[in-house]
Amino acid sequence: MATPANNFALLLDLAKEGSSEKRRELLRQITDVFLSDPPERTDRESMLFDEIIGAVAADLETQVRVELAKKVAVSNVPVHRTARRLAMDVIEVARPVIENSKSLSEADLLEVIKVKSQDHMLAVTKRPDIGENVSSALVAKGEDRVVVSLLENRTAKIDRETYQRVAERAEVSPVLHAPFVRNAQVPLDLLNNVYLKVEHDLRREIMRKFHGVSPAELEAALEASRNHLSSAYGALPDDFQIAKDQITALEKRAALAPPVLVQLLRENKRTAFLLAFAKLVDVEFELGRRLVDTSDIDALAMLCRGAGFERGLFVTLCITIINDGSGLSKAEKYGQLYEQVPVAAAQRALRFWKVRAKGGAGAKAA
């Protein structure tokens, strides 16, 4: 191995050399010595290397800096100054260091997120040691592609508050739906909050997660849901009070049962139907109205299944609600869809919606 004096001489030659080819060769020799982590290397040599390379790196050609960055990225030698400088470089140079270098601290990563580009943030999401502070900063400043990559990093630590912000973004950003639902650490109540926004296959995945949780996990999630209630309510229909009186009368006669729903729909008593439906499945009026207005058959199946409705009643409700002339031909499809909803999972998911109903203004109005 070369002596420290010879190594230092190589570093000085690199600092003074003007030829790009000679610079590259000198850099190769120096990095082969210092970044290979030999047992003979001293702390003083490492510090010397870090100080001089860190100082001259900015004057090296881009391709030479790229080669240096690749070696620094995989080295166990503590070269914080050099790694930090390279991480703040153009993305071609910065990417390997940001993604892999152990010499970067959390403070360095937060500074990269604060001052550098979205591509630099994307590189941060690839690291195996992302902590909660870094995740929070990435969600706060990163574009959707950055957040997607963060969610797909199975080792990233993400706190509840950050997941909450992602859930709110997912309300208007479909690109976040799949990675959010498929992230194994997302709190159950937040999954429930995006249920109505995601597509059919992702809803099935949410149902499977509800099916697999323990009673203790479910109760913890329900408590979190109680503490993070968030609902928006529209204006009530003009006939709301009349319809409410009608449903109250049915309740007094013990006549409010699932078959009444079909009768109310066929009599074109839509508000009364919505009130009765909300009471029978135990959710707020506004939620039921939104699902019916959008003909959200998947969500209606989950509610009806959780409430124990008969398959035939659900099919009849679907045909009557959609009323597009093709209902009868789709009856079997509706029935199959209903059977595919796991009862236990639907009941567990419904408990979240009941919590929201009991905590919302719409439930009080009903």
Largest sheet: none
Mean pLDDT score: 84
Principal-axis shape: rod-shaped
How many domains, in number, for the residues?
3
Rg from alpha-carbon coordinates: 30 Å
Beta-strand level of the residues, as a percent range? Answer: under 5%
Q: Give the helices and strands as they follow along the chain.
A: HHHHHHHHHHHHHHHHHHHHHHHH
Would you report the number of β strands?
0
- What structural category arises from helix and sheet content? mainly alpha
Number of helices: 24
Euclidean distance between termini CA atoms:
83 Å
Low-confidence stretches: 229-233, 360-366
The amount of helix comes to 55-70%
Commentary on this structure:
- With 366 residues, the protein is an all-alpha fold.
- The chain folds into three domains: 1-104; 105-186; 240-365, no CATH class.
- Helix content is 70%, strand content 0%.
- It has helices at residues 4-16, 20-34, 43-56, 62-74, 80-87, 91-100, 106-115, 118-124, 132-141, 144-152, 160-170, 177-182, 188-194, 200-212, 215-227, 240-252, 259-266, 270-281, 285-293, 297-307, 311-322, 331-340, 343-359, 361-365.
- Mean pLDDT is 84; it is low at 229-233 and 360-366.
